[in-house]
Amino acid sequence: MAGLEDLYREIILDHYRTPRNRGELDPPALSADGHNPLCGDEIRISVAVQDGVVTDVRFSGSGCSISQSSASMMTSAIKGKPVEQVKSIVRRFKQMMTIDEEDTEIDESINLGDLEALQGVVKFPVRIKCATLGWNTLLDALATEQK
Amino acid sequence: MSLDVTSIRNDFPVLKRQINGKPLVYLDSANTSQKPQVVIDAMTNFMSNGYAPINRSAYQMAAEATDLYEGARSALAKFINAPKAHEVIFTKNATESLNLLIMSWGRANLKAGDSVLLTHMEHHANIVPWHMLVAERGIQLRWVPLTNDGQLDLTQLDTLLDGVKVFSFTSMSNVLGTINPVQRLCAAAHKAGALAFVDGCQSVPHQPTDVQAWDADFVVFSSHKMCGPSGVGILWGREALLEAMPPFLGGGNMISDVRLDGFTTAELPAKFEAGTPPITDVIGLGAAVGYLEKLGMAQVRKHEIELSTYVLNMLKDRFGDEITIHGPANPELRGATFSFAFRDIHPHDLSQVLDQQNVCVRAGHHCAKPLMRILGANATARASFYFYNTMSEADALADALDSASDIF
Ligand SMILES: Cc1ncc(COP(=O)(O)O)c(C=O)c1O
Fold first, then answer.
1. Is cis: bond before A27, omega within 30 of 0?
2. Domain-embedded: residue B148
């Protein structure tokens, strides 16, 4: 059986206790809300994009340690990166969570860094939705730009 | 004589299960209950030795199947003291029972501007179909608010009831554990000229039910929360009201005649049981009712009051202000279903840690999001006890809670 130490790694608890980039950004920053209908977790992601680069990103809302720490780590991982690269990171993360659904190739060279700590979530399938809540919401926020 | 829980536990094969060498502590019966051997046997025996359709064929095995199926209906009618067995309708679950009731009765009787009274502690199943009728018909919803300790605030009840067509409410909250004064609420509804719909999901499995003493007009509940299998719901209604209602689903079994230009409905209860019903599951439910009757529902309620008293005192003794238990503090006013917040640990994380000790609790919004918003929480953890649970299982819950503090 998968042990709790696989799930609650120190770095995850660190991001849970001391979240990075908490808060919201005003427009013209893009934002979207996400819900986990199973557990009621709610998250808002705001992301500022300038010249195709994510210049700032924040998250707010409430949820369990996995959804909150995953969102916190995500913001750290994508801040300052070009949007195209951010989208590749999202896919790489979803691949790690075993929920990547697109047929195009994934850039395997992307290093997820600290995010690798969330690998253990896969052993607790009901928590995959917690770990990916912020990520799907980020994609929703980025998608509002085209409108 | 009180319940012999040790011997009762022997009736439930799953309660002997160990995971990683540790016993299972199943505290999620408000969600769905475990099944005694007699239910499993009744279903297995039917499928092994006598599986056949009901109502359609003359051969002996089909007649036996029909007897078993109708026997379950009669047993249920007796269990809730319904005047007539054909007032008991089998559906897929309580949610379908509510949809049948709200859509069939509602479409026939409600028009734009009519009001319906609900409460802030309803399950989504007694909210969403009404919202659908709001969109379809332009009816209006009113709500009975709650007191600070999670009871219905009835101070304005008569005003709220003034002019409403239906008062639809739960007999017991699946989140707070609060047991509502059903008889009083039905009387108030009738005095205002409204019908009383009772969502009995949480109380029917746990205490004696007498729909005539309640003076309710309709009552719904689910098999799977009362030791029966999943796949069956129950709708009981007064004969005259059911007869006046249009059918809900159309198809086989619910007709007495079909022509090229229309159809005539069958008599009750077939009128509301379109298609092949869950025959095996209804037979299992029949066995569950027999099992509960043998225990005695008054004994079940007594055991659960004792358990509640123990759980409330023990958790307060051990954790003081670090635990917040929602709902009434008086065990006489509540069932043994406890939603709680513990040391700022998110319910999802809490339930994960408890699972390491095989303590099964539910974490989430419990299909009662309006109520959760009032409690100011996205989610709670909920431990719910049934007659097969023991005080030492309550202790196991507390020990597991303690271990959560080591991580967070
Ligand atoms: C109060 C209440 N009403 C309705 C339901 C719906 O029951 P079912 O899921 O069996 O349709 C439940 C079950 O969760 C409940 O607790």
1. no
2. yes
